[in-house]
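hey can u check if this looks right to u? its 313 residues, i copy pasted from the old doc so theres a chance i mangled smth
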Amino acid sequence: MGINILAVTRKFVLTLFSILFLSQAFAQGIDEAGLKQLNFYQDSLKHLGSTVINNDNELVRKNASYQFIKTLVSALKTPNSFHFPFDSVKTITLTRSPDDKFRIFSWHVANDDGSYRFYGAIQINTGGPLKLYGLEDYTPLLKNPEDTVGDNRTWYGAQYYTIIPVGVTRPYYVLLGWKGNNDRSTKKVIEVLSFQNNKPVFGMPIFNRNGKKRDRIVFEYARQASMLLKYVPSEHLIVFDNLAAPDKKSKDKLETYGPDLTYNGYRLKDGTWHYMDNMDMRNVPSDQDETYIDPKITERPKILHPIKKKQIQ
């Protein structure tokens, strides 16, 4: 049997990165006792996270998520926990800002009806005591999410896989996230996070399309479809699939929409993101987001729909 050189190389690089990261953690103040404690919490979070994603009982999944929150908060109270990667907990998305000022934990709990509830927290890199903001999913009560500014208690829940810092007069961060939705459609979101009086604010009117500004951008498309949404740093560009209905009769049914092999985008100019239609993608780098693990293609709850008896995809 031949040796997969690429796989071996990747494994070596990942192992080396892990060693370097732990060495950095020690250098930045996690002592041996703290590291032992964090590893203990990590094992608990790994077990709870697996229950959140894989258990067949909705109530058990939700209770495991609540216990997960309590355990995570206890873990983050460990001195210098900001530098611990929690890389064994595969059931959550942990994304660090490129400027190392904060990181976001985000995850979801699937409901039996095919919908989702999102959970999350923002940990600030204080270099000292824990500063943590819990995120409360307020989605059902947000009637116009693209025109709404809120805080961590009125969060438009999502799992974020990319953080884009924008340094202007009032610095902010653009977040790309997977939102799920229900048993018919999926959503993705381009979110904005800023800090006012050291507190998180979600939403900002910086997305300009034909003179009309939005606080965030929400995409909805057929659940069985897959949508590209990524950032191209060299172009200061957020690019995404153009979503279209399969026929004229379905133009008002977003749950039927899917990519039509054309692309649109938002390009950054003077702190504002300007819409660009029908983009030529031949000269834009096409590497996939390595930091994003789509919940559709990883561990998912093996839940049988109570009516259709069909496994949720």
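The chain has two domains: 1-91, 94-313.
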